[in-house]
Amino acid sequence: MKEINFRPKARLIKILGEQLIKDASVGIIELVKNSYDADATTVELIFDSLNTENAKIIIRDNGTGMDTETFLTKWMNPASGHKEVQKNRKIRTNLGRLPLGEKGVGRFAAQQIGNKLTLISKNSIDKKILSAEINWEEFDSTDKDLSEVNIRYEEIENSDFFPGNNTGTVLIIEKIRNKFSESDVKKIYSAVRRMKSPFRGVNDFDVSISFQNCPEEWSKYSDLNTSEILEKAPFMFIAIADDNGIVDWEYKFSFPGFKKRENKGKSDLFQETDITLDKDIKIGSFMIYLHAYLRGEPLKVTQINPKDIDELSGISVYRDGIRILPYGEKGNDWLGLDNRRIQNPGQRIGNDQVIGMVEINQNENSILKDKTNREGLIEDRYYEKFTKLITGVITLFERELYEDRKLFQKKQRKVEENIINNKLNTVEKGLNQIEEKVKEKNEVPSVEIKETLNHIKPVYHELKTEIPVTIEELESEKKVLFNLAGTGLAAERFTHEFARIIGGAISSLERLKKLIDLNDPRIKKETDTLTSAHEALRNDIRLLGPMFYIKKVAREKELDIRKIIDNTVSLQEYMLTKENINLEVTGETFTVLMREGSLMQVFNNLLDNAIFWCSRKSELDKKQIRIIIDDKNHTVYVTDSGPGVNSRFRDKIFDPFFSMKGEDGRGLGLYIVKEILDEKGFGIWLVNQEDFPGLLSGASFKIVFNEKSE
């Protein structure tokens, strides 16, 4: 068998640059990372004549530089793997750094930005200066092999970039591929501004931006500081999460005119949220910093520019203090925060309301690896656990800020009402003035009319911009209710159609029995099984029916409480068996005057919660639900052996949109239960285990059906 080697064409370099580096902002970040790997403490980004044909970008650092041998054997050998070896062996630099790059493709970033690259490097060992020039256009040829394109390099005596003993590397990128607009500059500015974590970022690594021969207004893109914006956030949350879902956290609320509040604790995500974790998958512990903001008028109070929130919002990920793209980029809602908020706007925070930083490092979280194209982490099972843990931490944050946000919004609504009333009064006053003037004279000087109208117009326009803020919140909540209404209608249609189909199937089965030989035991066994299955399905639909056909079953009637409970338990039989939960009902029955569907909703919601929280227990723990009927006091207790309700949330669990279930919870189950019971003058309370004999260690609810039920 003959042998042959690959002979890549020169244009492969161009293809790699275009495929691996998305745009100029990604390319510049990659080149800055190379400076970090070279132990630089400062990196200067100089943008010269960007909006002209003479545009060039200079990236200058004070790192260790490269000697000729390093340039020839490593820089000119992409994917040589030396950084990966260094990282795997935990070989740190003199400044204690592990390399951020490992694929050896970062240098193609320069090719993606411009067609000409000049590299000047002075190494820290012998202080010799290397100069190299690369014309990337030579790689465009479809005829040349890669080995036929020559790179010119030499050692030079002096360079203005490195006076005295200064060392480092300078990249001069010219023949810029695409003319830069202000939006391009803003994108690069945003990427650089967020490149370094403001919390656990590298203390000895700074990046600066300057402009030469560029529009004067671009100078505003030189300020990279974000600390003031973060410090003014009303809601702050700092947490460290480990592989087992244990989270140590600290929460702070601070806003002008409100009492400051701080809290800290330790939470088990598996017990307190709906996330499931494979504890055998190890990704290591990580830190997360969250800062949440309320849009509209509150931003004016804190003097935060909304554009800064637009630019910085989202959840970013940092490795060793340096950001991993594209997490946190505008439009990159990688954790699905906006979708969560649509489902539950009263409790969830949206992607544009939070500035978050997740901190990982090479030592602790080495299993989380970058994609080759530098666009995020490899999305494997480790990544999946990583996202689950982050979402769980965000859920804890949302629970903590829930009460503060509620108080804030309540006060804000009053403020907004006063503002609107004051401005409407101003408008009314202005109109009255015009009316008076019209009465006084047949002709009103046009100047006076203009002055009055000029006074009214700004007030009117201000009202136009302020009222939609409140309307937007109401619209958001309305969407959720419409979604739920749609789900109910869909379920009603399904119930009706499914009942009809099951009825037809049972009729067909009965006719089939008459046509076949039922003396054959095998045939009889199969038909009996089919009959039982159909009857079970029809029974389930019959039980489900009252919940959806409320209009048709609008009349109240005396209901046997035990029968309703038994029917509800039948609905949950599958989940009880699946989760290996033991359920018992004790006590003598009594009757309640209610609509059947409403009463079933009460017990079905309570059982749903009990089953969910019991399922969070390990297989070794005893999973138990107990329903105790106290006929003497017309009371029913629903109690479980789950983790119970944290004392911090006891006063909130009946609030609409408050949920402890995380992603799966809409926060409406217990709210609906309370509303149904309140309508009848009945009551429900969360009670303690010692309040009644037989209650279990988890959550216990007491439902009192008062004298009206007799």
From TrEMBL:
Catalytic activity: ATP + protein L-histidine = ADP + protein N-phospho-L-histidine
Record keyword Cell inner membrane present: no
The Histidine kinase domain, residue ranges: 493-709
Keyword set, alphabetical order: ATP-binding, Kinase, Nucleotide-binding, Transferase
Record has Nucleotide-binding as a keyword: yes
Species per Swiss-Prot/TrEMBL record: Ignavibacterium album
InterPro entries per the UniProt record, alphabetical: 2C_sensor_his_kinase (IPR050980), HATPase_C_sf (IPR036890), HATPase_dom (IPR003594), His_kinase_dom (IPR005467), Sig_transdc_His_kin-like_C (IPR004358)
EC number: 2.7.13.3
Protein name according to UniProt: histidine kinase
Enzyme class: transferase
GO MF entries: ATP binding; protein histidine kinase activity
Organism domain of life: Bacteria
